[in-house]
Amino acid sequence: MGTLIASTVNGGGNGRYGSGYPNSGLMQYAPNSGLWFCFYMANATTGFAAKYASTPTGTWTVPSGSPITLSSNCTLGNYLACCLANISSTDILHVARYDPNLNSSNGGVWHSRYTLGTIWTTTNSEAVDNTNAGGYPVTSNNAVSCLDSSNYPVDAICYYVDIASNPDSGTWTAGWGSVKTITSVTVVQLIPLSGRNLLAIGQYSSNWYSSLWNGSTWSTPAALTGMSGDTIEDISTVVVGNTVHAVYLPNSGTTSYHAIYNITSGTWAAGNTIPAISTGAAGNPFLATDGTNVYMAVLQGSTQNIEVIEWTASSTSWSTEWYITDVGNSSHTRYALSGYSQVVDGIVGLTYTQANGSNFDLYASSFNVSAITYAGTVISSVGTDNPATGFPTSTQMIDDGTNSWAFYPHSTQSGKLCYRSTTNLASWGSEQTVTVSNFPGNGISFSIIYNQITKTILVVYGDVDASYPYNAYLR
Questions:
Q1: CATH classification at residue 220
Q2: Tens of pLDDT along 409-427?
């Protein structure tokens, strides 16, 4: 079960999007203070609020200065977009907020800046940038924001993108350049790349596209390979080294779509097959990374569990099974899964809203990437449970840094130690055997000690008719 952050938050759909969209950034980790933050609308007017905790599932506390009064009413939590940067050893938060009443009700974006800690301080009050939604349909009513590689704030709404005139160097002088337009594509996410380049992910005509900003112009939109659909809350991205991973899971679907962008070549390719969610339909994918591997979390529809699957760089594939990291309650529907996209001390922080009668409460959850476990995979059929011949189920495992090894007796291989190796715990190699004097095939307990220097193992075991151990060396 998750940890309650705040009760009765405001968001789209009577509060259901109080935690924003997958990459809205409403959960952040502040490295200088070592605190996790969640941001939300405490009411349907001007109360922009925050809470912090030492861990995502710890006690959430209101910082001094919260809530902050906005310049105009913000009726939907998913209007917000937050990005955090560590600048001059200070945790700095930039916030973009869509306002449908700006620009003669065409809609536009407010931008503000804060420093974070147990005291929440406004350094730059809300001011309007130069974006103008141009009366675009309300289905695209989320602001998008990031800091580029030189800490220039960037805001977007619909297909209009505005880059600040000045970088944030520890202080920031507000000011904005002229708005640039991405042809037809409604921006959902902005991804900062090196050299102040930007990658925009967006939707057009029921498909996902990207466009690259090279410092002066936006490129012709390119389709994300193998991905069709246009639901804002059902796509998530994360940067891993020289690549961008994107995953799309259609709402109430079981099949996810994966695409990978090569930053050097500027091209998309189909990603790797993600196993269907066997427990039923899910939605709201969220991606996080430890800098090497990718972790995808989803909300399962019927159980309301949070389930996770892992993509590893070493195998360039997704694990074969989903792992339940947070058991839900089918009578309390969860919405709008989001989180912090970087693994912190082995932890992925998550946030979501949960129905509470006619209200919606904001919750946090987390999982440890080293504790992801899956259902067992058959290594070998070693015999049957027969008291007359023993129980051939005793198994020992080691890892030599490259392969995992499983050692076991086999009911048809008396006098031999059986073993298999793997680099992927879901798929084991063929069975091998080595003759070991008096080694039983009936599952009597044995132990293996592995010497990493000499690459040898010591096998200690007992015969079924002996009261003393036999020793054997296997190289």
A1: 2.120.10.10
A2: 777 777 777 888 877 665 6
